[in-house]
User: Which sequence fits this backbone?
């Protein structure tokens, strides 16, 4: 995965005896106590330093969400970030950056696939879609990854040996966002963080979900195709995508087909995908007049947490009457699921407080969610019910 | 010259990745990886163990069972009820049964998969309620009684009763438990430990190996966080690594995987407490009767002392004339619970603080008013239930200052107005006090030693019994030594804690690290100075000072001179050379014991604390009425550290302790399934605060100009007390829930107040409206 990239570690930052500005600020502002999390924090601050000048509090917090510290209470680290990233001074990497970048670009011009093949493990890294589809056909059992933010845990935590891996992370043809007249077309390899920025002002319900998707480090690696393909019952983008009737394009070496995401997900972490196919494109319809779309994520901790209950709601109304409604929930069943009974009750009825409250009574018993480490079933049902009320309240005063 | 602004002594190494932790150490190409094979069942008889196939795996050096332990199969720190490796029976999921040493972790894992252990499952007790119902006491019931609570409750104008559950908490030190054992000649064993208590680690290692303590050397440079979790339970990995090192005669390192650490090790004790509180119409508390029941887990560990500290803090900052405190610790089939910042204090305090909250709601008053009128008095109403008189009471001055600086009254009005206008978001506000007793309540533990060496070039080595876990103890000691010797900190080095430099030390715990070790270091330096003064007189005379007065010699800014005669001075390093040539010893030990600490456990009376540390916090939250989620909007803290030894470090302890407390009160929920399997065993299900969870507006002040007489440089301990400031957040959440019912319905509440607990409570309030 490091092919074509420069690896910089915490040991690399100081310039001889002179600390990097982010390191110096951490010392000056007492940002370390036990020190165990500090290298990670310093590298996150280094990323912030290189990408922002005078970052907002939101940017600072976002850059640190993926780093847990148990000692400091974070306040001195936030202070250090503010001081180090004021801009002005050039760090030691600034001078060498153009040279390194041009050398890296040179490396990536060669589109010959990269492979590491041992007796125990095959790692295949195609650099074009054609090669990717060929590998997929030749190695139908291989695990397909891009950022591997989910799959990697099988190796690091469960100590599994993943025998065949196809890594799509450098297939540039899959990394794009295009606005068409009726929909947004997104490459399956488009990173979540890029999508978050692209959706700003364009797809607000998606943006809201992506703002609290994992952490910056995870969002930089994770892709939209990966989030759809893993088909988790608590996948952050899925309720929204199903609610707005998004579609995926699936390709093999000789066939292209399209499928709604609702139909694509067929069970617990299970999708309608042939062994030689890859998800290549996601089509997200643009909102049209009369539509109201929202997403929600309820979790024990607001950031860097897996949802207890998530939801994507779509309402199409005309003169105050519900023409169409799709209420999609995560965390309520083995896969993202629509509240079909509740939808049926609401369809064709006036979108009123009374009808919504009646619908809530249906909704609370529509699902039989699990009680697990995150929450009990009773809480999940209450939240699902209440989110409908929240949706109704937020829809008030919206143009329809 | 007081270096009260020294940066953390390892800050430079932390930010460059150069700090060394146990897991960074590779001492020999022969070093092996150790692994613990533990019980998958909460209670079972071991029928058979077969590891013949595992032993045949290439790269496996040794597999040990209880039968292979050369010394005592025991690692209970106080009560010997905790086997090092299970023999016939396992009593919790995570109990060590076998140990593997192999060339790599991967080989050890492969070997483990080939081990077959047959168990016969037995009935397990997994809930504290069940343990209480079955009366499974693990220690004698304890009482602290003052006056006659039953009679006073009967006579009180009003009386409320209740029950409170407070949850367990995972330490979540970033560095999991680790130890590296290196065998030496003969029986010698060197252990690099991540332990708050090197002397006890040394003792347990010696005992399991069946050798004497002088054969075992334990060194601790630093820990990657501990918080109490490495006070006794760091001994376990050290003992396991030492057994494997002894068996293989090769260095063995054990570094637990995160999930294993969470499953195997003990946590903060969960409590189920029952109480009755009697009061008059002004809100003055007349009587309080409380029963504190703790879940000790499968063995005693420190549960007795933790329960005792909970009892000592049952009334927190309140003077209550008639009070009865009962403490019971129960045995369950869970990992043995252990020390965690606050050491029972938080569990005891939570009950009274939310009881006061309940009294206020009952009387339709602001809880701040009820707290104030019940504070310990100055001059009267100042005797604690255990007989100690509360002196140097800072509660009143801190309350007045914080109410003003936080704008409490104005914000109370604003909160009420906001809640009147908003149906789906409610705000809550609360002020809570902390009065925390400082000292080990086991009196003899209040002792510390130090070793100070001055070398011929004038540089100084300082060693003491305290350990560095991030709290900045080494830095504070560095500052103390620099100030006492009158030389710059650059000439002083504080070196790793080591049982062969300073023996028989107590754990670095009970917030006492700098109190005890600072005084011991000072004592050593005083000894050295008393030897150096005659040399200085001789040298000053040679330099032209007429008849130097030994009583007036001072050590300031790397110079030695007679007070009032700064014109004639000798550089410190030159004085040291002269002392060496004059055959004066330049190495000294120092010793300190806290005066006057005693406690009679049977009578429940005595003086268990040297002094109290005080703190107070105001927090404001907003709660989403539809989901139970909440946001911490603002916290104002005023905290008492006496004359600070290092303000930056003290503020770091206050902020960090508070946020850790917020975690315990809010998102850190621990769950087991009905077989006793831990469900929340990794960071994806166990949620400590992130950077986003700290108050949007966070203001921390130290109480200035209130020196603490009788301690090192008039300072106060700071490690634990700020943890309990988090009750302000917990009760602000309760205040917001209460606003849903217009403060007319008492919300059901427990700790942690997860979004789930909050929403369920809101639904109940709504249904009673």
Assistant:
């Amino acid at each position: 995965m490091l092919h074509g990239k420069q690896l910089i570690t915490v040991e690399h930052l100081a310039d001889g005896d002179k600390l990097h500005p982010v390191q110096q600020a951490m010392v000056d502002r007492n940002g370390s106590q036990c020190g165990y999390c500090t290298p990670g924090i310093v590298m996150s601050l280094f990323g912030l330093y290189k990408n922002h000048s005078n970052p907002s509090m939101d940017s600072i917090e976002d850059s640190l969400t993926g780093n847990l510290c148990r000692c400091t209470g974070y306040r001195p680290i936030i202070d250090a970030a503010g001081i180090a990233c004021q801009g002005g001074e050039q760090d030691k990497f600034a001078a060498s950056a153009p040279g390194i970048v041009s050398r890296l670009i040179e490396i990536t011009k060669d589109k010959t696939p990269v492979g590491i093949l041992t007796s125990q493990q095959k790692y295949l890294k195609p650099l074009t879609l054609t090669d990717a589809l060929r590998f997929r056909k030749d190695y139908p059992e291989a695990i397909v990854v891009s950022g591997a933010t989910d799959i990697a845990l099988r190796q690091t935590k469960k100590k599994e040996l993943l025998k065949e891996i196809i890594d799509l992370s450098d297939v540039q043809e899959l990394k794009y966002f295009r606005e068409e007249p009726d929909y947004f077309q997104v490459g399956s390899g488009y990173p979540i963080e890029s999508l978050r920025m692209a959706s700003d002002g364009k797809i607000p319900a998606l943006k809201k979900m992506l703002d609290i998707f994992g952490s910056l480090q995870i969002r930089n690696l994770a892709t939209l195709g990966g989030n759809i393909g893993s088909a988790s019952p608590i996948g952050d983008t899925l309720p929204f995508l199903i609610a707005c009737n998004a579609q995926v394009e699936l390709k093999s070496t000789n066939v292209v087909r399209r499928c709604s995401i609702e139909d694509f997900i067929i069970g617990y972490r299970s999708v309608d995908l042939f062994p030689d196919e890859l998800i290549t494109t996601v089509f997200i319809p643009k909102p049209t007049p009369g539509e109201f779309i929202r997403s929600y994520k309820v979790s024990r901790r607001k950031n860097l947490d897996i949802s207890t209950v998530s939801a994507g709601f779509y309402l199409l109304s005309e003169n105050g009457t519900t023409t169409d409604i799709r209420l999609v929930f995560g965390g309520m069943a083995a896969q993202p699921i629509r509240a079909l009974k509740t939808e049926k009750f609401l369809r064709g009825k006036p979108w009123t407080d009374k009808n919504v409250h009646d619908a809530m009574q249906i909704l609370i018993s529509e699902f039989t969610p699990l009680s697990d480490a995150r929450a009990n079933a009773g809480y999940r049902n209450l939240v699902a019910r209440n989110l409908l009320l929240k949706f109704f309240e937020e829809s008030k005063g919206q143009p329809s | 010259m007081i270096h009260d602004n020294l940066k953390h002594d390892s800050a430079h190494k932390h930010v460059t990745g150069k700090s060394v932790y146990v897991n960074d150490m590779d001492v020999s190409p022969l070093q092996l990886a150790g692994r613990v094979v533990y019980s998958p069942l909460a209670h079972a008889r071991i029928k058979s163990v077969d590891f013949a196939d595992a032993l045949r795996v290439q790269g496996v050096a040794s597999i040990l069972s209880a039968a292979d332990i050369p010394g005592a199969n025991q690692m209970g720190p106080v009560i010997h009820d905790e086997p090092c490796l299970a023999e016939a029976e396992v009593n919790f999921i995570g109990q060590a049964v076998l140990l593997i040493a192999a060339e790599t972790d991967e080989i050890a894992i492969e070997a483990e998969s080939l081990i077959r252990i047959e168990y016969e499952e037995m009935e397990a007790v997994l809930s504290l309620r069940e343990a209480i119902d079955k009366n499974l006491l693990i220690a004698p019931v304890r009482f602290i009684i003052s006056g006659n609570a039953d009679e006073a409750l009967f006579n009180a104008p009003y009386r409320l009763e209740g029950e409170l559950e407070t949850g367990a908490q995972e330490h979540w030190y970033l560095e999991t438990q680790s130890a590296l054992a290196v065998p030496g000649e003969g029986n010698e064993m060197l252990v690099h430990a991540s332990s708050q208590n090197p002397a006890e680690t040394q003792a347990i290692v010696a005992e399991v190996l069946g050798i004497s303590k002088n054969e075992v050397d334990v060194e601790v440079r630093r820990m990657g966080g501990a918080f109490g979790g490495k006070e006794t339970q760091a001994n376990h990995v050290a003992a396991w690594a030492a057994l494997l090192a002894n068996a293989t005669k090769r260095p063995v390192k054990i570094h637990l995987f995160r999930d294993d650490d969470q499953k195997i090790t003990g946590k903060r004790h969960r409590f189920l407490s029952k109480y009755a509180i009697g009061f008059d119409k002004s809100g003055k508390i007349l009587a309080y009767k409380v029963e504190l029941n703790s879940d000790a887990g499968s063995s005693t560990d420190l549960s007795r002392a933790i329960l005792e500290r909970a009892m000592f803090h049952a009334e927190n900052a309140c003077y209550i004339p008639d009070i009865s405190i009962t403490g019971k610790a129960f045995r369950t089939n869970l990992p043995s619970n252990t020390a965690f910042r606050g050491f029972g204090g938080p569990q005891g305090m939570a009950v009274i603080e939310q009881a006061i909250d309940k009294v206020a709601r009952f009387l339709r008053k602001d809880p701040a008013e009820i707290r104030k009128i019940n504070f310990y008095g100055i001059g009267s109403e100042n005797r604690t239930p255990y007989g100690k008189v509360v002196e140097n009471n800072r509660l009143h001055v801190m309350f007045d200052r914080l109410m003003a600086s936080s704008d409490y009254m104005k914000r109370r009005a604003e909160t009420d107005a906001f809640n009147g206008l908003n149906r789906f978001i409610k705000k809550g506000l609360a002020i809570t006090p902390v009065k925390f007793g400082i000292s080990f309540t086991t009196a003899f533990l209040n002792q510390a030693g130090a070793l100070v060496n001055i070398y011929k070039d004038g540089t100084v080595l300082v060693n003491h019994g305290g350990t560095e876990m991030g709290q900045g103890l080494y830095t504070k000691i560095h500052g103390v030594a620099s100030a006492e010797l009158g030389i710059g900190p650059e000439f002083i080095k504080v070196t790793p804690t080591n049982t062969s430099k300073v023996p028989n030390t107590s754990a670095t715990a009970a917030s006492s690290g700098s109190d005890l070790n600072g005084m011991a270091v000072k004592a050593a330096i005083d000894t050295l100075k008393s030897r150096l003064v005659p040399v200085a007189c001789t040298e000053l005379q040679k330099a032209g000072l007429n008849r130097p007065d030994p009583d007036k010699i001072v050590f300031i800014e790397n110079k030695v001179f007679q007070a009032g005669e700064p014109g004639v001075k000798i550089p410190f390093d030159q004085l040291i050379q002269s002392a060496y040539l004059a055959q004066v010893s330049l190495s000294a030990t120092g010793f300190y014991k806290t005066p006057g600490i005693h406690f009679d456990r049977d009578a429940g009376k005595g003086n268990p604390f040297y002094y109290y540390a005080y703190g107070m916090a105001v927090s404001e939250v907003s709660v989403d009425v539809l989901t139970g989620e909440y946001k911490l909007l603002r916290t104002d803290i005023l905290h008492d550290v006496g004359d600070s030894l290092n303000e930056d470090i003290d503020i770091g302890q206050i902020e960090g302790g508070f946020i850790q407390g917020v975690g315990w009160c809010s998102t850190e929920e621990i769950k087991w399934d009905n077989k006793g399997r831990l469900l929340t065993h990794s960071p994806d299900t166990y949620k400590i605060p992130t950077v986003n969870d700290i108050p949007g507006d966070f203001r921390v002040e130290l109480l200035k100009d209130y020196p603490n007489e009788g301690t090192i440089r008039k300072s106060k301990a700071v490690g634990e007390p700020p943890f309990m400031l988090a009750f302000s957040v917990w009760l602000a959440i309760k205040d917001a829930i209460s606003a849903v019912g217009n403060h007319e319905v008492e919300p059901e509440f427990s700790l942690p107040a997860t979004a789930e607990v909050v929403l369920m409570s809101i639904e109940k309030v709504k249904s009673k409206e």
Remarks:
- The longest strand of chain A covers residues 309-318.
- The longest helix of chain A spans residues 377-395.
